[in-house]
User: Which sequence fits this backbone?
């Protein structure tokens, strides 16, 4: 007894230690694999884009040429980069007020029995695949834009405004346009921003709100003077998260933006984005061609832009993540 | 507000106060109605998507959708037979299940690492940050990555390339929920297990996983729902195919890519079939989501 017990314990102890070491390294190895994945994505995109970068130099970023015809190939990413940024910013401008409204409704206005079903419905909106948004946008939103907004009295009135009328006048009447893409993007990112806002609004200590109500403040005053100042960084983080999503959205945009290599002067002009030009042209481009390399370079640039935006978003949301 | 109260002031002050109160009430009501309107608008979008899917999707929905593979358009040829989506459904099922099988264990291990081994360590923070970035990174770039890494060396589009690109999307989803769920487990439970003499790996596998199983399954379900509708990465990796095929080293059809191709074909009958596919995908994705939420709620 006195001799066997320590032996048994040491055998069990050592098998436990070996198991511990193996399991810990499996976990750590998987973690390192994730780091390698990100590094691999950056490197392969950059290496793939290198021939185009060598050929066109840094002016690739602002050049508006895009000519895949053999013999006079000339590529520049200016229009796609501009289209990506403008469409995403327009989407944010439309989505943020709506998302705030939904979040405010869910945290302060809705009666208890309504909170869960409405909250679930908003979350389901986030679950719908982007290709469905694209088809719905093309068959429902685009005809509405074409018939009721652009060619309706709204569009005609906007186009008459002196000075900025040209932003709303277009010689393209198909409805597939920068505006259609921004609108569909806004609907897609709305639930992401709304969910973040709702979560951070819920974290405001009840005492703060009750104190303000006790002083006679209305609900809007409580939100404006107590809730929003308290949650400001997280709210901006949520908006950046939505922006990050919008920048890289592919299928929905491909369906409705018109995919034309021209700068959209008017919001009703067709244009293109990085993700949609890659989706449209990459499967048909020749292996090793300058076109394929240019598309990979565009992908690299998209990665850099969204990485920066997502990193800022995560930095701003870190306090929310901790709690 | 006014600081002096002259005899004639109370009347004016009451006016001012009344005006101010009215303005505050109007502002409050305006914001309230705006918020209610915004919520209704968001619900209208959801309803419109579902109604459109049902209305357009039921048009071509019949048994042949599930039993037949692709057939060319019947447009202008009434004797021709209508095609189906069997090739796309089988392709999607194969690629999604394989991708889940590959991505889930990796995501589970990473989540375990973040929660049990690397709380506060520099490597852990880096992995957490990168995983969160991958969670929101444009999925088409993952397609480009796998194209360079797998499709080019193999010399063509393949099912296995599609599986790998979907698996990369699964990992960060599973990581997020696994870490969240494991960190909800009270430390006293861990201490009790270790106090009984169990090694750490047994504590994690036999006790922590068991306590967090509902959350982990939820994460896997959400990951499946996410990749079932992914189109962009598959467009660059598995591309498409018109027949039922189990060959993983060849191009493979999937529901989202088939929908995309047929919706852009310009033939009304093929577009109708695309809508049926869209209805199938969306119903599947929404049902998985609702199941995942119900599972988590029953536990909590």
Assistant:
């Amino acid at each position: 007894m006195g001799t066997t017990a320590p032996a048994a314990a040491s055998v069990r102890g050592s098998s436990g230690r070996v198991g511990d070491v193996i399991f810990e390294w499996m976990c750590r190895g998987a973690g390192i694999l994730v780091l390698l994945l990100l590094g691999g994505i950056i490197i392969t995109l950059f290496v793939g884009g290198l021939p185009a970068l060598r050929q066109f130099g840094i002016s690739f970023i602002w050049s508006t040429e895009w000519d895949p015809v053999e013999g006079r190939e000339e590529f520049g990413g200016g229009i796609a980069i501009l289209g990506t940024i403008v469409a995403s910013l327009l989407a944010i401008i439309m989505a943020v007020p709506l998302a705030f409204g939904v979040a405010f409704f869910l945290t302060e206005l809705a009666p208890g029995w309504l909170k869960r079903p409405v909250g679930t419905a908003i979350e389901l909106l986030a679950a719908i695949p982007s290709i469905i948004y694209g088809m719905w946008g093309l068959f429902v939103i685009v005809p509405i834009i074409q018939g009721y907004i652009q060619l309706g009295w709204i569009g005609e009135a906007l186009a008459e405004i002196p000075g900025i009328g040209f932003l709303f006048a277009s010689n393209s009447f198909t409805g597939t346009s920068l505006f259609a893409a921004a609108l569909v993007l806004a609907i897609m990112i709305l639930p992401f921003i709304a969910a973040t806002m709702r979560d951070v609004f819920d974290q405001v200590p009840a005492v703060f709100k009750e104190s303000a109500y006790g002083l006679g403040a209305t609900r809007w005053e409580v939100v404006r003077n107590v809730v929003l100042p308290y949650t400001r960084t997280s709210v901006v983080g949520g908006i950046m998260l939505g922006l990050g999503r919008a920048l890289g959205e592919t299928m929905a945009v491909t369906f409705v933006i018109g995919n034309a290599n021209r700068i959209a002067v008017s919001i009703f002009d067709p244009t293109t984005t990085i993700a949609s030009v890659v989706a449209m042209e990459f499967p048909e481009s020749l292996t090793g061609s300058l076109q394929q390399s240019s598309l990979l370079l565009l992908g690299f640039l998209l990665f850099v832009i969204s990485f920066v935006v997502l990193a800022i978003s995560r930095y701003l949301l870190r306090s929310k993540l901790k709690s | 507000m006014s600081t002096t109260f002259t005899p004639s002031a109370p009347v004016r002050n009451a006016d001012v106060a009344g005006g101010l109160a009215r303005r505050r009430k109007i502002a409050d009501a305006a914001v309230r109605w705006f918020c209610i309107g915004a919520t209704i608008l968001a619900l209208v979008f959801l309803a419109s998507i579902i109604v459109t899917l049902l209305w357009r999707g039921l048009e071509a929905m019949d048994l042949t959708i599930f039993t037949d593979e692709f057939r060319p358009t019947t447009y202008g040829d009434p004797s021709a037979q209508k095609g189906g989506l069997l090739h796309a459904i089988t392709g999607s099922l194969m690629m999604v299940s394989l991708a889940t099988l590959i991505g889930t264990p990796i995501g589970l291990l990473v989540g375990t690492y973040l929660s049990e081994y690397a709380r506060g360590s520099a490597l852990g923070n880096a992995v957490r940050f990168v995983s969160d970035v991958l969670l929101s990174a444009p999925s088409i770039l993952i397609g480009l990555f796998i194209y360079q890494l797998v499709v080019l060396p193999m010399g063509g589009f393949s099912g296995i390339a599609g599986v790998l690109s979907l698996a990369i999307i699964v990992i960060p989803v599973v990581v997020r929920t696994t870490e969240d769920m494991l960190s909800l487990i009270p430390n006293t439970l861990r201490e009790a297990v270790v106090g009984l003499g169990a090694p750490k790996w047994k504590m994690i596998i036999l006790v922590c996983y068991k306590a967090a199983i509902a959350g982990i399954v939820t994460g896997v379900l959400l990951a499946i729902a996410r990749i079932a509708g992914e189109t962009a990465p598959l467009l660059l990796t598995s591309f498409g195919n018109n027949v039922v095929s189990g060959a993983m080293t060849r191009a493979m059809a999937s529901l989202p890519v088939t929908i995309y191709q047929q919706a852009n074909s310009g033939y009304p009958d093929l577009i109708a079939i695309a809508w049926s596919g869209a209805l199938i995908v969306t119903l599947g994705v929404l049902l998985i989501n609702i199941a995942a939420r119900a599972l988590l709620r029953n536990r909590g």
